[in-house]
Prior knowledge:
The structure holds 2 protein chains of 2 kinds.
Chain A lengths: L9 E6 L4 H16 L3 E6 L35 H4 L4 H15 L5 H10 L3 E5 H6 L13 E3 L1 H8 L3 E4 L1
Parallel strand pairs in A: 1-2, 1-5, 2-3, 3-4
Helix pairs in contact in A: 1-4
Chain B lengths: L1 E5 L2 E5 L13 H10 L7 H15 L6 H6 L5 H7 L4 H9 L9
Antiparallel strand pairs in B: 1-2
Helix pairs in contact in B: 1-5, 2-5
Amino acid sequence: MNTNDEKIKKVSIICAKGALEDVYASLILANGARMEGIEANLFFTFFGLNAIRKNKMDKLHTATVGNPALDMPGGIPFPTFLGGIPGVESGVSVMMKKEMEKLDIPPVSEFLEIITASGGKVYACKLAVDMFKLEREDLYDDLDGILTVGDFYQQAAGGHIIFT
Amino acid sequence: MLQKEIAGITIDVDNDGYMTNLNQWNKEIAAALAKEVGIDSLTDKHWTVVDYLQKSYKEGVALSIRKVGKSGVTDIKEFYQLFPGGPLKKSSLIAGIPKPASCI
Lengths: 164, 104
């Protein structure tokens, strides 16, 4: 048990990657912070934006190529050549989501709603939004804003910044 | 086992102060535990949530923020307002059930 009396009061989490596991790491950290009474900001940038794009958020994939940690059910390493076959990545991702649901981990859209309801803030990176030519209506309805990096640092003031 | 004197009764608790014997729980203890975590008075809504948590615990349900949100007893926003600064932990403490082990 940690004996340090100093508590974390605020975290700002940057999600810059759009794979299933990267996005969930950010969502779980942010939600977990709120559960502990810690102020939480989520900032989605670059491919991480997929997590707050309405047409993509619930269709995120985990990589089946270039992912040496991926095993087949039973623990045999996942052969890279299989990962490249069309449909395999989708299938693996669906399986992962089913396993997550068993652990009561919600789909991304619901997870974002939980974080918003808990008082966590969800932001998009302006530069990335411009680069992908996205409009506000393409993004999560309860988004708290589209921020420049300068705005983000202002929001993050007084807390810890975590990059996933 | 640790013990703690509260509301005139001695209760068994774990290292984090969560009750380890729900049979020792009563509303006076709950109110006193609530005060310790900064909730001065428990409303009917609080009691409804506490009742739901105890019932779920007895049924062996692993509680999470998501489950409470879907329970129909309260929604997530209200849950955070009722037990500010850590709703699942604080409400579990007050309800006399073990410290929640959920990350969600």
